[in-house]
Each structure stands twice: as structure tokens, then as C-alpha cells.
Amino acid sequence: MARVTVEDCIDKVDNRFELVLLAGHRARQISQGAQITVPRDNDKNPVVALREIADETLSPDDLKEDLIHSLQKHVEVDEPEADGEAIADQTGGAVAATNADDAEENVTFDRMTEEDLLAGIEGLVPPEKSDDY
Fold it and tell me: Region Disordered: what ranges (predicted)?
């Protein structure tokens, strides 16, 4: 097959920069083991990704959604709100505040003596020396 160029794909994805992002994302998917939809023909992953986009074996919109999903760090989940009756059945705010105060009083911290700390430090294994530092 002839060499795939950006001009072969630009009618599928309007923006050249978006095309590069999508092809790069698809090439990373292929390198991670995703199934390819066109014959490889001894091409590298970026060329295979561009050929898949040019042949329309993959939808650019699906690739874009997958790229966005892969870049998201925090996904908000819409949880249903409680009914008015369920809120009325719950205990009052004053009782909840006193329970929070009781919980704060029950907090304990691990205390360590100086001798325990020194014994723990002495038990550590020193790092191996290397030429890096």
C-alpha cells in the first residue's frame, strides 16, 4: 500500500492537530495489545493508526471519546438525591453534631518514645552505594 499521509485522513478528521492526537492515542493502544482492524503490511503502529482512520475502520468520534476518558483523572458520578421523606426521617443536626464531638474525643495517636525511635532507625538497612550520587 502507498504511504499514508495526513491528506488521506484530513477528510475524516477536520483538524490536523486533533488527527495527530487521535492517531497517537490509537498507536499507543496498538502497542499495548489492542486488535488492529487493517492488515499490518510491515508498518509501524502510527502508520497503522493513520491507515485505520483513513479507511474508516474506526470512528474518529469513538477514538476521541476514548482519548478523553483516558486523560480524565476524576470522573464525577451522579448519585440520586434523597427524597424529602427520607431526609425528615433522619436524626436532627444537633444530635449529629454531638456525635461528631464524641468521635473527635476518641481519636488516639500512636506515641513513640525516643528510645523506640532510635532503635527503629538503627534497624534500617543503609542504601547501596552507586556512582549516581
Answer: 79-102
C-alpha cell belonging to residue 43: 508498518
List, for residues 97-107, the tens digit of each pLDDT value.
455 555 566 76
Long-range contacts of 112-117 (CB under 8 A, 24+ apart): none
Domain membership of residue 62 (yes or no) is yes
pLDDT of residue 132: 64
- By percentage, how much of the chain surpasses pLDDT 90? 29
Number of domains in the chain: 1
Q: What is the per-residue pLDDT across 26-72, written as a single tens digit (0 to 9) for each?
A: 999 999 999 999 998 888 999 999 999 998 898 889 999 999 888 88
Task: Determine the structural domain holding residue 10 and report its residue range.
Answer: 6-71
* Alpha helix (H) residue ranges in the chain: 6-9, 16-31, 45-54, 60-71, 84-89, 93-105, 114-122
Output the domain CATH number for residue 64: 3.90.940.10
Place of cell 488521506: 8
Distance CA 48, CA 76 (A): 34
> Domain for residue 16, yes or no?
yes
